[in-house]
């Protein structure tokens, strides 16, 4: 499977993704108790935190899947639900639970194109961009996890959005796939797009992000440039562990 092109050819006008004071509880269990987030055009923003910190809940609120109890989450100053054509503003790379395993990538994307109202020819474009054109006629049931990740990205790109949200996008990718994705995201942002990526792979994340949002225990601990966050440490991983240890000590 070849890598395909790694960049949008056009200049992008990425949206500003913003969350302020998010709070959310599920029954008696608080998931968020004060999360702020900012992702800007032309930047790759990393979203990190321990398991159970509230990252997935934050992203689900930002993309309109969950309603916050308090606080605001906006895309260019409006909630996701208020966007007239959301798939053409923000692509969300999630799992492919809704994709029929008996379908082909081309068939799946053609169905999605009809649902979101974009030209059918865009299917071929995203197949090439994500390196799936050589396997576009195969059944999804035979795909590896990494190939499914590429198809999830292709689905997110189908509306030609200027913003991307990715949750653990390197899961299942081989080393060459990880390098390809890193280059894709970097070039997407350099073209003016907005990228927000949540990942546990800090060593890989450090190679592509410009800014960092760190949460723990459902609240924000840090938001700013990667350079500032790592200024006194050898790596993102070292700086992350140092801050998390301090937070745990204070909480204890």
Automatic annotation (TrEMBL):
Question: Residue ranges of the ABC transporter domain?
Answer: 17-242
Cited SUPFAM superfamilies: P-loop containing nucleoside triphosphate hydrolases
Q: Which Gene3D superfamilies match?
A: P-loop containing nucleotide triphosphate hydrolases
Q: Which UniProt keywords apply?
A: ATP-binding, Nucleotide-binding, Transport
UniProt-listed PROSITE patterns: ABC_TRANSPORTER_2
Record family assignment: Belongs to the ABC transporter superfamily.
Name of the protein in its database record: ABC transporter
């Amino acid at each position: 499977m070849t890598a395909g092109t790694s960049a949008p050819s056009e200049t992008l006008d990425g949206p500003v993704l913003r969350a302020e004071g998010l709070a959310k509880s599920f029954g008696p269990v608080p998931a968020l108790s004060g999360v702020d987030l900012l992702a800007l055009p032309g930047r790759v923003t990393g979203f990190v935190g321990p398991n159970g910190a509230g990252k997935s809940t934050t992203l689900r609120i930002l993309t309109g899947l969950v309603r916050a109890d308090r606080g605001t989450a906006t895309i260019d100053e409006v909630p996701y639900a208020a966007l007239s054509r959301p798939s053409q503003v923000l692509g969300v790379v999630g799992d492919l639970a809704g994709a029929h395993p008996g379908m082909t990538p081309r068939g799946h994307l053609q169905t999605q194109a009809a649902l979101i109202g974009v030209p059918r020819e865009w299917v071929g474009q995203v197949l090439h961009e994500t390196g799936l054109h050589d396997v576009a006629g195969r059944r999804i049931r035979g795909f590896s996890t990494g190939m499914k990740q590429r198809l999830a990205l292709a689905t997110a790109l189908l509306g030609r959005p200027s913003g991307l949200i990715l949750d653990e996008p390197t899961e299942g990718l081989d080393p060459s796939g990880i390098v390809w994705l890193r280059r894709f995201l970097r070039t997407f942002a350099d073209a003016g797009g907005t990228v927000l990526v949540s990942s546990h792979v800090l060593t890989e994340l450090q190679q592509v992000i410009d800014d960092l949002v760190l949460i723990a225990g459902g609240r924000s601990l840090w938001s700013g440039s990667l350079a500032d966050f790592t200024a006194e440490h050898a790596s993102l991983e070292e700086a992350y562990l140092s801050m998390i240890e301090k937070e745990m000590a204070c909480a204890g």
